[in-house]
Specification:
Blueprint lengths: L12 H12 L2 H13 L3 H29 L5 H6 L7 H32 L11 H10 L3 H18 L2 H28 L5 H8 L8 H14 L6 H6 L8 H29 L10 H11 L4 H35 L3 H22 L13 H28 L2 H7 L7 H25 L5 H17 L6
Helix pairs in contact: 1-8, 1-12, 1-14, 2-10, 2-12, 3-10, 3-12, 3-16, 3-18, 5-7, 5-14, 5-15, 5-16, 6-13, 7-14, 7-15, 8-12, 8-14, 9-12, 10-16, 10-18, 12-13, 13-14, 14-15, 15-16, 16-18, 18-19
Bound molecules: phenylalanine (PHE).
The site of phenylalanine (PHE) has 15 residues, from helix 1, helix 2, helix 10 and helix 14.
Length: about 475
């Protein structure tokens, strides 16, 4: 009650880029990217991931920014505003559903990082022998109570910041702490690559072995490009909607994509050399970060100090992402049902926390319960990141490519009509990116040859375009 209905805006251009980077950079970069890279054989997987970022991620990010800024509306109503007659807004509903699912398990992982921060401060963590770290992590997720308490603590923080509103809450945090995280990651990386036996880890990241890839790896790489860049569910539409008209969107989209990718790669170089040096398992799964990095901190002077700051900063990186996830349903519920921000944030935060508790228990005490072969945690992650986000992204591409008028889309993206960059972007989002997404889906479904077709499709189109045969 008494809240003004005037839409908030970012304080400055840098504020927007930092907030959008704050959304993109999070557990996806530091926790998930290394562990899925480890499960999918290393370097070849990274190459596929980078291709997905360039030809699918970037075009979608620019599309989301322009939809949000043009309409100044949330994930659902922005589509309705631009295309009232057609069912494109369904994409927004899928996004709201994806946000629910992602934040529920995201809160659990963030809870683990809070636990580790606490254990690092209290000195307990680094007093263990390096060989005990896997069991130590196993004991945490096997505990029925402890991870849930930390998950709830994290969700309370998330709700508190979102209650404060866009500018005060989100922008201020991102501004100060993102650069600090980068510095800490670099320190950890340098220690990690100078450990004895680290070179096997560097090879793992730099020498591609394409035979390690399965059809599923391609889907995981694509899904992670969306997850890591916060795309496909309307986060960047919602953030774009708080942007004023005088920013240049293409350069903003480039800055955010590059920052996110660089951080993920640094995290990879911080973790894998240590994985091999300490004799850990590259395919260890969701616990990889937690089993490996404490061993690196043990080898650093002032290890306890660095470990505390590092895990603390990961918590904050997770927070700046979590608030952007919660912002999607909050913006939708306030606009659609006229709920106050307070009511929407508290109710939604509560429901998401409950689902997250089930996800947390499914990593330990409820581990025997599976849906289609995966526990609740893994299933929430799989369906949201690898199905809902790429599908949402596909619709966003098609919407901007075909649902909007060409001139309208160019203008909204700050391109002049004869911009070469603009034309390449439009061509990629109309033809190359949708083809890539569709064929990766088909390939994962086991449609024979679809992958080869995907590659041939993309390359042929790019060539025809460069030759001027098609396009414009
Ligand atoms: N991009 C965030 C991360 O890498 C997670 C996220 C996904 C945020 C989807 C918003 C939307 O941690």
């Amino acid at each position: 009650m008494g809240e003004t209905k005037k839409r908030e805006q970012w304080g400055s251009k840098l504020g927007f880029i930092l907030a959008a980077s704050g959304s993109a950079i999070g557990l996806g970069n530091i926790w998930k990217f290394p562990y899925i890279t480890g499960q999918n054989g290393g370097s070849a997987f990274i190459i596929i991931y980078l291709i997905a970022i360039a030809i699918v991620g970037f075009p979608v990010m620019l599309s989301e920014f322009l939809i949000g800024r043009k309409t100044q509306k949330d994930a659902v109503n922005s589509f309705k505003a631009l295309s009232p007659e057609k069912p494109w807004f369904f994409t927004g509903y899928m996004g709201v559903a994806a946000a629910f699912m992602i934040l529920s398990f995201y809160g659990v992982v963030a809870g683990w990082t809070m636990t580790y921060t606490w254990e690092a401060v209290s000195g307990n963590l680094l007093s263990l022998d390096a060989s005990q770290f896997p069991d130590h992590f196993g004991a945490l997720i096997g505990d029925p109570v402890k991870p849930i308490l930390w998950q709830v603590a994290f969700m309370v923080l998330t709700v508190a910041i979102v209650l404060g509103g866009v500018k005060k809450g989100i922008e201020r945090w991102s501004k100060i702490l993102m650069p600090l995280l980068l510095i800490l990651l670099l320190i950890v990386m340098f220690r990690s690559i100078t450990l004895e036996g680290a070179s096997a880890g560097i090879d793992f990241l730099l020498k591609p072995d394409f035979s390690a890839l399965t059809p599923t790896s391609f889907l995981v790489a694509l899904g992670h490009a969306f997850f890591s860049l916060s795309l496909g569910m309307g986060t960047m539409i919602t953030y774009g909607s708080y942007l004023s008209k005088d920013e240049k969107l293409p350069s903003a989209a480039i800055s955010v994509s590059v920052a996110d990718t660089v951080i993920a790669l640094i995290a990879g170089f911080a973790i894998f050399p240590a994985v091999f040096a300490l004799g850990m398992e590259a395919g260890a799964g969701p616990g990889l970060l937690f089993m490996t990095l404490p061993g690196v901190f043990q080898q650093l002077p002032l290890g306890t100090f660095f470990a505390t700051i590092f895990f603390g900063l990961v918590v904050i990186a997770a927070l700046t992402s979590a608030i952007s996830i919660l912002e999607v349903p909050v913006a939708f519920f306030t606009e659609k049902y006229n709920w106050t921000r307070t009511k929407a944030t508290i109710i939604l935060g509560f429901v998401i926390t409950l689902v997250g508790m089930a996800a947390s228990l499914s990593m330990g005490p409820w581990g025997g319960f599976t849906i289609a072969g995966k526990n609740i945690f893994d299933q929430l992650d799989w369906v949201s990141a690898n199905i809902l986000l790429p599908l949402g992204g596909l619709f966003i591409l098609l919407f901007v490519g075909f649902g909007m008028k060409l001139k309208e889309a160019f203008e909204a993206a700050d391109f002049s009509l004869d911009s070469k960059f603009g034309k390449t972007w439009m061509f990629t989002l109309r033809f190359v990116a949708p083809g890539f997404v569709l064929l990766v889906f088909l390939n994962a479904l086991g449609v024979t040859g679809a992958l080869t077709a995907a590659i041939i499709w993309s390359i042929t189109l790019v060539f025809l375009y460069l030759l001027g045969v098609i396009g414009d």
